[in-house]
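Colleagues,

For the teaching module next term, I've prepared a clean inverse folding example: a structure given as tokens, and then the sequence designed for it. I'd like students to try predicting residues themselves before seeing the answer, so please don't circulate the second half yet.
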């Protein structure tokens, strides 16, 4: 209740972080954010749903917008507070259209939201859907996220979104082990990681395409193989389905599938079945197997260096 009331007081904010040269937060110098703004930020993840509810509030505040003119609305202040609570929010992902190349970054944000009130409602909806998938890992840091101020962050850190497929696309790697009649270990390259909106239902469908080099070991004999794998699951739902085609240098060529569960789209347990489609089936390689896979394609490769 306290945080809900605090979010209702956003209209009284008089300063938002922008160009801040102060090293002491309690001075509340111009461009460093006022006391009320930082009280919002101190609400951490608990206050975020209340801030999201304000993202359609076009009530103007007295806070001027640097560089672009005009004034912050209650919605703009709420979003600025969110950006100090959650790191690397993908703002442009929530914008339905793109401006020309002369307007990038923050300019795109201001033009889109000021163009039509319907855009604010659409922006709020996109942010709300995104926030539901926030992993919630806490990063210890003294750095401010929306200003160049040098005073310690009042929360001593912020949240990041981690180990969820959407909205990142990018490359990554995975390690796997399967217990077959022969033991199999693999090193994979996840060269596509994406999600799509289904025609029916609200949950996004996640898919990956992986290329894997595998090593098979049995009876003192080893074999080198390769596999192309297509995986599919539903956002926030753990069942994970795959189909694959594989081949190894012991003249074994197969198609098959895997079914299992995904833990936070990071760790996977699967049962697999493969069927030989050539004229020869290697007797040492079982059609059945169970295995575990650890993936790092759930954030784009560039984002791995930011967490």
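(Answer key — instructors only)
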């Amino acid at each position: 209740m306290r945080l809900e009331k605090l979010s209702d007081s956003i209209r009284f904010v008089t300063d938002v972080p922008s160009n801040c040269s102060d090293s002491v937060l309690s001075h509340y110098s111009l461009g460093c954010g006022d006391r009320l703004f930082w009280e919002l930020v101190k609400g951490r993840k608990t206050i975020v749903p209340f801030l999201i509810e304000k993202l359609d509030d076009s009530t103007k505040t007295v806070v001027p917008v640097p560089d672009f003119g005009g004034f912050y609305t209650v919605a703009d202040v709420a979003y600025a507070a969110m950006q100090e609570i959650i790191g690397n929010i993908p703002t442009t992902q929530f914008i339905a259209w793109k401006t020309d190349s002369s307007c990038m970054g923050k300019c795109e944000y201001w033009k889109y939201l000021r163009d039509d009130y319907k855009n604010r409602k659409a922006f709020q909806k996109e942010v709300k859907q995104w926030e539901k998938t926030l992993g919630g890992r806490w990063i210890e840091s003294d750095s401010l996220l929306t200003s160049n101020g040098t005073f310690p962050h009042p929360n001593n850190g912020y949240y990041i979104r981690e180990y969820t497929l959407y909205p990142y696309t990018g490359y990554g790697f995975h390690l796997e082990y399967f217990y077959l009649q022969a033991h199999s270990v693999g090193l994979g390259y996840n060269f596509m990681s994406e999600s799509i909106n289904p025609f029916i239902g609200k949950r996004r469908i996640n898919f990956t395409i992986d290329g894997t080099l595998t090593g098979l070991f049995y009876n003192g004999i080893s074999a080198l193989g390769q596999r192309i794998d297509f995986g599919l699951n539903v956002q926030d739902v753990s069942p994970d389905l795959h189909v694959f085609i594989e081949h190894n240098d012991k003249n074994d060529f197969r198609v098959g599938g895997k079914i299992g569960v995904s833990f936070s789209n990071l760790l996977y347990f699967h049962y697999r079945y493969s069927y030989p489609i050539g004229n020869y089936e290697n007797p040492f390689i079982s059609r059945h197997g169970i295995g575990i896979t650890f993936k790092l394609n759930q954030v784009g490769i560039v984002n791995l260096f930011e967490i």
